[in-house]
Amino acid sequence: MTEHEELEMLRALVEKQKQELEAKDKIIQKQNIQLENMIQALLHARKKLFGSPSEITRQTGEQINLFETTQELAAELFKEQKKITVPSHQRTARQPGVRVEMLVNIPKEVEEYIIPPEENCSECGAELKVIGKKLVRTEVEFIPSKLKVVQVLQEVAKCTNCGNEGSENPKDHFQKAAVPTSVLPHSIATASLVAQVMYQKFAMGIPFNRQENDWYRIGMVLPRSNMANWTIRCSEEWLAPIYNRIHEELLKCEVLHMDETRIQCNKEEGKQASSDSFMWVMRSAACEEIKAAFFHYSRSRSGDVAKQLLQGFHGYLTTDAYSAYEKAENIKRNLCWAHCRRYFIESIPLDNKGKEISGSKGAEGREFINLLFKLEDEIKELSYDEKKEKRQEASRAILDAFWSWVEETSAISTTNENLTKALNYAKNQKKYLETFLEDGRLPISNNLCEANIKPYAVARRAWLFADTPKGATANAILYTLVESAKANILDVYEYLKYILEAMPNTDFKNHPELLDKYLPWSKDLPEECRLNHKHKKCFKK
């Protein structure tokens, strides 16, 4: 081998090694990007678990001047917002008599301590003369709940004429006193007992196993299997007709919310016990006269379920961007801006302490959406027509600037996968994200529906799963009634008790119109079902 050939071989070897190093550098760079994205995902997950749950942006000194273009946009838009006239509200200070208002609905009794007649002056020993009484303190005493056994006796009378010689009726006739139908025949269950079991689980989030211990504490052995059985049977026999009626009435609305969340059902045929089934939730919008939530259990999250639930509905539907709702017919989709904002929040880089790193594009996108929510807060007291007009002026300007920013930012190369996902989400859903401009009644977020799902999601951490599909369906029925009762400011326990007392003695099968008086928004509900709000202002923040 000549010296020239040896030199060429070395050059080829160097070039090959150079290419290999470049390839390895690219792999390392790609892995570093993946590692950084994984670290950011971990930091955001930690922030969700241990950080503030609120999505409200807290402004700091650094954040105020983060974005020059946003500040220019805000200055331009505030000129339009100044035209919006909203009645001012000044928060009143806590008044000295608030405690009296807080206790106004609680029964009162006086505990009086008197000076014994034989007691004399502690200073000189002279006789004492009573000159009045002094209020030392006002206290609230808790009286634990109690159980009592009620034996229902039915009087029986015998006709003095029937069965006698010469009587029209040759047989003896016995007549019994009218007795209300029991909520569960051949059972110790009463409407009050079943209502309390339901209230504890579905309103207070206390699962049956914990209730079992509490019932034992106050003197009754009540197995969780009995409580589950009572709940399922009462749901099927007495509550399901009202539940179905609520669904029928919701479909008559013009604006609805919908969302879905998971539920584990252990004995769903054809599925593993650990697999997810779903609870679909429908909620009437704030603009609707009826206030109701509807929970529906389904083994799947397919679009066929959404289509079935929305059959007969013709109006606006506020949801996230889940494609299953596209199968529903005759609806106009209105997408949630809070969901869109969450994508940008998740794209904001965090430092090792979980604090946001200033100057990010994700924070910039969030600021645009925050402007939309700020405007909505300012016009919330206006009529729907005025709200639509102001949206066409100010919201339209914010949106135009936002979409322009999305296009500019999308053209910039980035290693932030979450930012790319947020930008793509916004671009892909642009049509439905702008639907709220069409009608002043439309909300810009699905938060109202999510607020009804939250008690369910929190309680799910305690009861973990439904054992059977019947139990899961009973969950849906009870959460429908409980959340609808809350929306109509009812006493949940009294409402459930009233239904369980009245329904067994109502001929609703032959006269379904009788169900209307048991709906959560019915004006025919007795006064004890309604919460007394004389002291409500004491708890306003």
Structure characterization notes:
The chain is an alpha/beta fold. 45% of the residues lie in helices and 8% in strands. Helix 3 (68-81) packs antiparallel against helix 11 and helix 7 crosses helix 15. The chain starts with a helix and ends in a 39-residue tail after the last helix. Residues 60-71, 80-86 and 537-541 have low confidence and may be disordered.
At a glance:
This protein is an alpha/beta fold and 541 residues long. The protein has helices at residues 3-50, 61-64, 68-81, 98-102, 191-202, 208-217, 224-250, 303-309, 337-346, 361-378, 384-410, 417-428, 430-433, 447-463, 469-487, 492-502, and strands at residues 156-158, 174-176, 255-264, 276-284, 293-298, 315-319, 331-335. Helix 7 (224-250) crosses helix 15 (469-487), helix 9 (337-346) packs antiparallel against helix 10 and helix 9 runs antiparallel to helix 12 (417-428).
Q: Largest sheet, described in full? A: 5 strands, mixed
| First-residue to last-residue Cα separation | 91 Å
**Helical element count?**
16
Strand order of the largest sheet: 5-4-3-6-7
What is the average per-residue confidence, as pLDDT, rounded to a whole number?
A: 87
Shape: extended
Runs in which pLDDT lies below 50 for 5 or more consecutive residues are 60-71, 80-86, 537-541
Helix content: 40-55%
Q: What structural class results from the helix and strand content?
A: alpha/beta
The count of strands amounts to 7
Task: Indicate the radius of gyration in whole angstroms.
Answer: 33 Å
Please report which band the strand proportion falls in: under 5%, 5-15%, 15-25%, 25-35%, 35-45% or over 45%. Answer: 5-15%
Helix and strand string, N-terminal first? Answer: HHHHEEHHHEEEHEEHHHHHHHH
